Amino acid sequence: MELVACDSTNPQLVPGGAGEGAAAGIVARRLDAAGLDVEIADVLPGRPNVVGRLRGTGGGPSLMLCGHLDVVAADAEGFRPTIRDGRLHGRGTSDMKGGLAAAIVAAERIAAGPPLAGDLLVAAVIDEEWVSAGAEALARSHRADAAILPEQSDLEVIVEHGGFAWFEVESRGREAAGIDPEAAVDAIALALPFLDGVVALDRELATRPTPEYGRPSIHISTVAGGTQYPAYPDSLLVGIERCTIPGEPVAQAVAEIDELLGLARAADPRFDAEVRMIVGREPVQLDADHPLVRALDAAVAARLGRTARHLGDMGWMDSGVLVEAGIPCAVFGPTGGGHHTAAEWVDVPSLAECADVLEAAARAFCR
Predict the structure, then answer these.
(1) Read out DSSP for 222-246?
(2) Domains, the chain, ranges and CATH?
(3) Regions in the chain scoring below 50 on pLDDT
Protein backbone atom coordinates (compact mmCIF):
# COMPACT_ATOMS: atom_id res chain seq x y z
CA MET A 1 0.00 0.00 0.00
CA GLU A 2 2.95 2.32 0.66
CA LEU A 3 4.23 1.69 -2.87
CA VAL A 4 0.79 2.27 -4.43
CA ALA A 5 0.33 5.51 -2.51
CA CYS A 6 3.62 6.76 -3.96
CA ASP A 7 2.97 8.41 -7.33
CA SER A 8 5.50 6.99 -9.79
CA THR A 9 3.82 8.03 -13.05
CA ASN A 10 6.17 7.58 -16.00
CA PRO A 11 7.04 11.11 -17.24
CA GLN A 12 7.48 9.77 -20.78
CA LEU A 13 3.75 9.02 -20.80
CA VAL A 14 2.63 12.13 -18.92
CA PRO A 15 4.80 15.26 -19.20
CA GLY A 16 5.59 16.35 -15.68
CA GLY A 17 4.83 12.90 -14.26
CA ALA A 18 6.31 12.24 -10.83
CA GLY A 19 8.76 9.58 -12.01
CA GLU A 20 10.10 6.67 -10.02
CA GLY A 21 12.48 8.37 -7.60
CA ALA A 22 10.32 8.32 -4.47
CA ALA A 23 9.19 4.74 -5.04
CA ALA A 24 12.82 3.72 -5.56
CA GLY A 25 13.58 5.19 -2.14
CA ILE A 26 10.89 3.04 -0.51
CA VAL A 27 12.31 -0.11 -2.08
CA ALA A 28 15.90 0.80 -1.22
CA ARG A 29 15.05 1.36 2.45
CA ARG A 30 13.25 -2.00 2.74
CA LEU A 31 16.09 -3.91 1.10
CA ASP A 32 18.73 -2.13 3.15
CA ALA A 33 16.85 -2.87 6.39
CA ALA A 34 16.74 -6.54 5.43
CA GLY A 35 20.52 -6.63 5.12
CA LEU A 36 20.91 -6.62 1.31
CA ASP A 37 23.71 -4.65 -0.34
CA VAL A 38 21.81 -1.88 -2.12
CA GLU A 39 22.81 0.07 -5.22
CA ILE A 40 20.85 3.09 -6.50
CA ALA A 41 21.80 4.45 -9.90
CA ASP A 42 20.06 6.98 -12.15
CA VAL A 43 19.18 5.58 -15.55
CA LEU A 44 17.60 8.88 -16.57
CA PRO A 45 17.82 12.11 -14.54
CA GLY A 46 15.99 11.60 -11.25
CA ARG A 47 14.81 8.14 -12.34
CA PRO A 48 16.95 5.45 -10.65
CA ASN A 49 17.08 1.69 -10.73
CA VAL A 50 17.46 -0.02 -7.35
CA VAL A 51 19.27 -3.35 -7.00
CA GLY A 52 19.68 -5.24 -3.73
CA ARG A 53 22.03 -8.21 -3.49
CA LEU A 54 21.87 -10.91 -0.84
CA ARG A 55 25.21 -12.63 -1.15
CA GLY A 56 25.27 -16.42 -1.03
CA THR A 57 27.88 -18.68 0.46
CA GLY A 58 29.14 -19.64 -3.01
CA GLY A 59 28.76 -22.54 -5.39
CA GLY A 60 25.11 -22.05 -6.33
CA PRO A 61 23.37 -20.31 -9.23
CA SER A 62 22.22 -16.72 -8.83
CA LEU A 63 18.61 -15.57 -9.21
CA MET A 64 17.15 -12.13 -9.90
CA LEU A 65 13.66 -11.01 -8.90
CA CYS A 66 12.87 -8.02 -11.12
CA GLY A 67 9.90 -5.64 -11.08
CA HIS A 68 9.19 -2.19 -12.46
CA LEU A 69 8.45 0.95 -10.48
CA ASP A 70 6.64 3.10 -13.03
CA VAL A 71 2.90 3.30 -13.58
CA VAL A 72 0.62 4.87 -16.15
CA ALA A 73 -1.37 8.00 -15.37
CA ALA A 74 -4.11 8.12 -12.75
CA ASP A 75 -6.11 10.78 -10.97
CA ALA A 76 -5.45 11.53 -7.30
CA GLU A 77 -7.85 8.79 -6.21
CA GLY A 78 -5.69 6.21 -7.97
CA PHE A 79 -2.92 6.84 -5.44
CA ARG A 80 -5.19 6.25 -2.43
CA PRO A 81 -5.04 2.46 -2.04
CA THR A 82 -8.15 0.87 -0.57
CA ILE A 83 -9.09 -2.72 0.31
CA ARG A 84 -12.58 -3.93 -0.55
CA ASP A 85 -13.76 -7.54 -0.49
CA GLY A 86 -10.25 -8.96 -0.35
CA ARG A 87 -8.95 -6.83 -3.21
CA LEU A 88 -6.49 -3.96 -3.03
CA HIS A 89 -7.52 -1.20 -5.46
CA GLY A 90 -5.31 1.57 -6.83
CA ARG A 91 -2.91 2.47 -9.60
CA GLY A 92 -0.11 -0.07 -9.89
CA THR A 93 -1.67 -2.65 -7.55
CA SER A 94 -1.57 -5.27 -10.28
CA ASP A 95 0.87 -3.64 -12.72
CA MET A 96 3.08 -4.26 -10.86
CA LYS A 97 3.67 -2.99 -7.36
CA GLY A 98 1.86 -6.00 -5.89
CA GLY A 99 4.31 -8.43 -7.44
CA LEU A 100 7.27 -6.22 -6.55
CA ALA A 101 6.13 -6.08 -2.92
CA ALA A 102 5.80 -9.87 -2.87
CA ALA A 103 9.36 -10.19 -4.19
CA ILE A 104 10.68 -7.83 -1.50
CA VAL A 105 8.89 -9.75 1.26
CA ALA A 106 10.26 -13.04 -0.11
CA ALA A 107 13.79 -11.59 -0.05
CA GLU A 108 13.31 -10.32 3.51
CA ARG A 109 12.30 -13.81 4.66
CA ILE A 110 15.24 -15.41 2.88
CA ALA A 111 17.66 -12.87 4.38
CA ALA A 112 16.38 -13.76 7.86
CA GLY A 113 16.85 -17.50 7.34
CA PRO A 114 19.55 -19.98 6.35
CA PRO A 115 21.87 -18.52 3.70
CA LEU A 116 21.57 -19.49 0.06
CA ALA A 117 24.47 -20.87 -1.92
CA GLY A 118 23.92 -18.51 -4.87
CA ASP A 119 23.32 -14.76 -4.79
CA LEU A 120 19.76 -13.41 -4.73
CA LEU A 121 19.20 -10.06 -6.46
CA VAL A 122 16.07 -7.92 -6.14
CA ALA A 123 15.79 -5.24 -8.84
CA ALA A 124 13.27 -2.43 -9.16
CA VAL A 125 13.59 -0.71 -12.53
CA ILE A 126 12.17 2.32 -14.29
CA ASP A 127 10.36 2.89 -17.57
CA GLU A 128 8.73 -0.47 -18.34
CA GLU A 129 5.61 1.37 -19.52
CA TRP A 130 7.58 3.15 -22.25
CA VAL A 131 10.76 1.67 -23.75
CA SER A 132 12.21 -0.32 -20.81
CA ALA A 133 15.23 1.93 -20.32
CA GLY A 134 15.54 0.59 -16.78
CA ALA A 135 15.59 -3.08 -17.77
CA GLU A 136 18.12 -2.35 -20.50
CA ALA A 137 20.41 -0.60 -18.01
CA LEU A 138 19.96 -3.46 -15.53
CA ALA A 139 20.91 -6.04 -18.15
CA ARG A 140 24.10 -4.09 -18.87
CA SER A 141 25.10 -3.66 -15.23
CA HIS A 142 24.07 -6.91 -13.52
CA ARG A 143 24.11 -10.59 -14.37
CA ALA A 144 22.22 -13.57 -12.96
CA ASP A 145 21.81 -17.19 -13.99
CA ALA A 146 18.03 -16.71 -14.21
CA ALA A 147 15.28 -14.27 -13.28
CA ILE A 148 11.65 -14.25 -12.16
CA LEU A 149 9.46 -11.33 -13.15
CA PRO A 150 6.56 -11.08 -10.66
CA GLU A 151 4.10 -9.48 -13.08
CA GLN A 152 0.47 -10.47 -12.57
CA SER A 153 0.07 -14.06 -13.76
CA ASP A 154 -2.77 -15.32 -11.53
CA LEU A 155 -0.24 -17.55 -9.72
CA GLU A 156 0.56 -19.50 -12.89
CA VAL A 157 3.97 -19.87 -14.55
CA ILE A 158 4.32 -17.89 -17.77
CA VAL A 159 7.10 -19.34 -19.90
CA GLU A 160 6.53 -17.36 -23.11
CA HIS A 161 5.01 -14.07 -24.17
CA GLY A 162 4.49 -11.96 -27.22
CA GLY A 163 6.51 -9.05 -28.55
CA PHE A 164 5.69 -5.81 -30.32
CA ALA A 165 6.97 -3.15 -32.68
CA TRP A 166 5.97 0.53 -32.84
CA PHE A 167 6.32 2.41 -36.11
CA GLU A 168 5.93 6.04 -37.09
CA VAL A 169 5.13 6.60 -40.77
CA GLU A 170 5.23 10.09 -42.25
CA SER A 171 3.58 10.74 -45.61
CA ARG A 172 4.90 13.90 -47.26
CA GLY A 173 3.08 16.08 -49.76
CA ARG A 174 2.87 19.71 -50.83
CA GLU A 175 0.57 22.25 -49.24
CA ALA A 176 -1.62 24.39 -51.48
CA ALA A 177 -4.86 26.29 -51.19
CA GLY A 178 -8.02 24.23 -51.46
CA ILE A 179 -8.91 26.07 -54.66
CA ASP A 180 -5.61 25.09 -56.28
CA PRO A 181 -5.62 21.27 -56.53
CA GLU A 182 -3.14 21.20 -59.39
CA ALA A 183 -0.44 22.70 -57.18
CA ALA A 184 -1.13 20.35 -54.26
CA VAL A 185 0.16 16.92 -53.30
CA ASP A 186 -2.31 15.58 -50.75
CA ALA A 187 -0.27 13.71 -48.12
CA ILE A 188 -3.38 12.21 -46.52
CA ALA A 189 -5.08 10.98 -49.67
CA LEU A 190 -1.87 9.40 -50.97
CA ALA A 191 -1.48 7.45 -47.71
CA LEU A 192 -4.91 5.85 -47.90
CA PRO A 193 -3.69 2.68 -49.69
CA PHE A 194 -1.15 2.21 -46.90
CA LEU A 195 -3.82 2.66 -44.20
CA ASP A 196 -6.15 0.28 -46.05
CA GLY A 197 -3.26 -2.18 -46.17
CA VAL A 198 -2.83 -2.04 -42.39
CA VAL A 199 -6.52 -2.84 -41.92
CA ALA A 200 -6.33 -5.66 -44.46
CA LEU A 201 -3.24 -7.13 -42.79
CA ASP A 202 -5.00 -7.16 -39.44
CA ARG A 203 -7.92 -9.05 -41.00
CA GLU A 204 -5.43 -11.61 -42.31
CA LEU A 205 -3.71 -11.88 -38.92
CA ALA A 206 -7.12 -12.61 -37.40
CA THR A 207 -7.07 -15.92 -39.28
CA ARG A 208 -3.97 -17.02 -37.31
CA PRO A 209 -5.35 -17.58 -33.79
CA THR A 210 -3.38 -19.66 -31.29
CA PRO A 211 -4.70 -21.36 -28.15
CA GLU A 212 -2.01 -19.71 -26.01
CA TYR A 213 -2.38 -16.11 -27.15
CA GLY A 214 -5.47 -15.46 -29.16
CA ARG A 215 -4.06 -13.84 -32.28
CA PRO A 216 -1.35 -11.48 -33.49
CA SER A 217 -2.53 -8.05 -34.57
CA ILE A 218 -1.68 -4.70 -36.12
CA HIS A 219 -3.54 -1.44 -35.67
CA ILE A 220 -3.36 2.27 -36.41
CA SER A 221 -2.63 3.91 -33.05
CA THR A 222 -2.39 7.65 -33.82
CA VAL A 223 -3.07 9.95 -36.77
CA ALA A 224 -2.08 13.62 -37.19
CA GLY A 225 -2.13 15.65 -40.39
CA GLY A 226 -3.16 18.90 -41.99
CA THR A 227 -3.28 22.37 -40.50
CA GLN A 228 -6.46 24.07 -41.74
CA TYR A 229 -9.68 23.45 -43.63
CA PRO A 230 -8.91 25.57 -46.73
CA ALA A 231 -5.63 23.85 -47.64
CA TYR A 232 -4.34 20.51 -48.88
CA PRO A 233 -2.19 18.82 -46.22
CA ASP A 234 1.55 18.55 -46.74
CA SER A 235 2.06 15.83 -44.13
CA LEU A 236 0.40 12.93 -42.36
CA LEU A 237 1.97 11.25 -39.32
CA VAL A 238 0.67 7.79 -38.45
CA GLY A 239 1.55 5.61 -35.45
CA ILE A 240 1.33 1.84 -35.90
CA GLU A 241 1.58 -0.98 -33.37
CA ARG A 242 2.27 -4.58 -34.45
CA CYS A 243 1.71 -7.14 -31.67
CA THR A 244 3.63 -10.34 -32.36
CA ILE A 245 3.63 -13.89 -31.01
CA PRO A 246 6.52 -16.39 -30.77
CA GLY A 247 7.57 -17.27 -34.31
CA GLU A 248 7.02 -13.68 -35.53
CA PRO A 249 10.31 -11.77 -35.19
CA VAL A 250 10.52 -7.99 -35.28
CA ALA A 251 12.16 -8.32 -38.72
CA GLN A 252 8.90 -9.77 -40.01
CA ALA A 253 6.97 -6.75 -38.76
CA VAL A 254 9.47 -4.43 -40.48
CA ALA A 255 9.07 -6.35 -43.74
CA GLU A 256 5.27 -6.12 -43.50
CA ILE A 257 5.37 -2.33 -43.13
CA ASP A 258 7.78 -2.03 -46.05
CA GLU A 259 5.46 -4.14 -48.21
CA LEU A 260 2.46 -1.95 -47.34
CA LEU A 261 4.42 1.19 -48.20
CA GLY A 262 5.31 -0.41 -51.54
CA LEU A 263 1.61 -0.95 -52.28
CA ALA A 264 0.95 2.75 -51.70
CA ARG A 265 3.83 3.73 -54.00
CA ALA A 266 2.49 1.39 -56.68
CA ALA A 267 -0.94 3.00 -56.39
CA ASP A 268 0.49 6.51 -56.95
CA PRO A 269 4.18 7.26 -57.58
CA ARG A 270 3.75 10.64 -55.88
CA PHE A 271 3.45 8.85 -52.53
CA ASP A 272 6.56 9.80 -50.54
CA ALA A 273 6.90 8.40 -47.04
CA GLU A 274 9.49 7.77 -44.36
CA VAL A 275 9.15 5.04 -41.74
CA ARG A 276 10.84 4.98 -38.33
CA MET A 277 10.70 2.10 -35.89
CA ILE A 278 10.31 3.62 -32.44
CA VAL A 279 10.99 0.38 -30.58
CA GLY A 280 10.84 -3.32 -31.36
CA ARG A 281 10.82 -6.18 -28.84
CA GLU A 282 11.10 -9.84 -29.72
CA PRO A 283 8.68 -12.49 -28.42
CA VAL A 284 10.08 -14.68 -25.64
CA GLN A 285 10.10 -18.44 -25.12
CA LEU A 286 11.67 -20.33 -22.20
CA ASP A 287 12.24 -24.07 -22.16
CA ALA A 288 9.57 -25.58 -19.89
CA ASP A 289 12.24 -27.97 -18.55
CA HIS A 290 14.60 -25.17 -17.48
CA PRO A 291 15.80 -25.50 -13.85
CA LEU A 292 14.07 -22.21 -13.00
CA VAL A 293 10.72 -23.50 -14.28
CA ARG A 294 11.21 -26.73 -12.35
CA ALA A 295 11.93 -24.71 -9.21
CA LEU A 296 8.73 -22.68 -9.69
CA ASP A 297 6.72 -25.83 -10.39
CA ALA A 298 7.99 -27.43 -7.17
CA ALA A 299 7.28 -24.26 -5.18
CA VAL A 300 3.71 -24.04 -6.47
CA ALA A 301 3.14 -27.69 -5.57
CA ALA A 302 4.65 -27.28 -2.09
CA ARG A 303 3.14 -23.91 -1.13
CA LEU A 304 -0.17 -23.93 -3.06
CA GLY A 305 -0.84 -27.65 -3.11
CA ARG A 306 -1.49 -27.98 -6.83
CA THR A 307 0.23 -28.45 -10.17
CA ALA A 308 1.42 -25.28 -11.85
CA ARG A 309 0.16 -24.52 -15.34
CA HIS A 310 2.61 -23.29 -17.98
CA LEU A 311 1.03 -20.46 -19.97
CA GLY A 312 1.77 -17.94 -22.70
CA ASP A 313 0.84 -14.26 -22.44
CA MET A 314 0.17 -11.85 -25.30
CA GLY A 315 1.54 -8.81 -23.45
CA TRP A 316 5.23 -7.87 -23.61
CA MET A 317 7.17 -7.50 -20.36
CA ASP A 318 10.66 -6.56 -19.20
CA SER A 319 11.47 -10.28 -19.20
CA GLY A 320 12.03 -9.85 -22.94
CA VAL A 321 14.98 -7.53 -22.28
CA LEU A 322 16.50 -9.95 -19.78
CA VAL A 323 16.12 -12.92 -22.12
CA GLU A 324 17.73 -10.99 -24.99
CA ALA A 325 20.64 -10.26 -22.63
CA GLY A 326 21.09 -13.97 -21.93
CA ILE A 327 19.23 -14.17 -18.60
CA PRO A 328 16.49 -16.85 -18.79
CA CYS A 329 13.32 -15.42 -17.27
CA ALA A 330 9.95 -16.81 -16.21
CA VAL A 331 6.95 -14.81 -15.02
CA PHE A 332 5.13 -15.59 -11.78
CA GLY A 333 2.97 -13.06 -9.97
CA PRO A 334 -0.25 -12.47 -8.04
CA THR A 335 -3.86 -12.45 -9.23
CA GLY A 336 -5.26 -9.15 -10.44
CA GLY A 337 -6.81 -7.19 -13.26
CA GLY A 338 -7.95 -3.81 -14.56
CA HIS A 339 -4.48 -2.84 -15.84
CA HIS A 340 -4.19 0.82 -16.89
CA THR A 341 -7.75 1.61 -15.73
CA ALA A 342 -9.37 3.19 -12.69
CA ALA A 343 -10.60 -0.30 -11.73
CA GLU A 344 -7.10 -1.79 -11.27
CA TRP A 345 -6.88 -4.34 -8.43
CA VAL A 346 -4.83 -7.14 -6.94
CA ASP A 347 -6.12 -10.02 -4.83
CA VAL A 348 -4.70 -9.64 -1.31
CA PRO A 349 -4.44 -13.36 -0.40
CA SER A 350 -2.63 -13.98 -3.69
CA LEU A 351 0.08 -11.48 -2.66
CA ALA A 352 0.93 -13.66 0.35
CA GLU A 353 0.82 -16.80 -1.80
CA CYS A 354 3.06 -15.16 -4.40
CA ALA A 355 5.63 -14.26 -1.73
CA ASP A 356 5.53 -17.85 -0.45
CA VAL A 357 6.18 -19.29 -3.92
CA LEU A 358 8.93 -16.80 -4.75
CA GLU A 359 10.68 -17.61 -1.48
CA ALA A 360 10.48 -21.36 -2.05
CA ALA A 361 11.54 -21.11 -5.69
CA ALA A 362 14.56 -18.96 -4.79
CA ARG A 363 15.63 -21.39 -2.08
CA ALA A 364 15.36 -24.30 -4.52
CA PHE A 365 17.07 -22.59 -7.46
CA CYS A 366 19.95 -21.05 -5.49
CA ARG A 367 20.78 -24.24 -3.57
Answers:
(1) EEEE-S-TTEE-SEEEEEEEEEE-T
(2) 2-161+283-365 (3.40.630.10), 163-281 (3.30.70.360)
(3) none
